[in-house]
Amino acid sequence: DETFGMADIFNDERNQLLLLTTSSGWCTACKEEQPALQALYEQYRDRGLEVMVTLFETQNFTPADSRYAKSWQDRYELTYQVVADTPFVMQPYYPDGDPSATPLVMLLDVNTMTILYKTTGFQKDAVEGFIDTRLPASLDSTEGN
Fold first, then answer.
1. What DSSP element (H or E) covers 65?
2. Are 47 and 139 in contact (CB under 8 A)?
3. Residue-wise DSSP of 102-140
4. Which tens digit of pLDDT belongs to each residue from 56-106?
5. Which of 121, 40, 97, 26 is nearest to 68 (CA)?
6. Which of 30, 38, 64, 111 is the most exposed place for a label (fewest CB within 10 A)?
7. Contact, 107 vs 119, CB < 8 A?
8. Where are the beta strands (DSSP E) in the chain?
9. Coil vs helix vs strand at 53
10. What is the pTM of this model?
């Protein structure tokens, strides 16, 4: 098992904005958003976007573990971090703590770890618009997008 935490994101000076989603194996919308998240990651990574998915339950409503997180990452061919949230520390961020509102999508300023945007459900256009306004055109001024 590989340990990964928020400090890994915070300590990487390239990261400016974190797209954090909570997901579960029983959530159809969570499964459907993975290709869109991967596309956003590929499009904005060089501009400072990091993406992380936290999984709290399997399709059988049992707590997710690191093996389940790895199989999720492999199944959807994801190059960003997928972690198990076995104690479900993300639950208080849901409206009324209700995980049936999954997926929960948040955008955080990596430098301050302040939540800048939070919604349930994944609206790609809204998320992309927010990312586009928050990130510089390029982290390296000698390169274009």
1. none
2. yes
3. PPEEEEEETTTTEEEEEEES--HHHHHHHHHHHS-S-SS
4. 999 999 999 999 999 999 999 999 999 999 999 999 999 999 999 999 999
5. 26
6. 111
7. no
8. 17-24, 49-57, 81-84, 104-109, 114-120
9. strand
10. 0.88
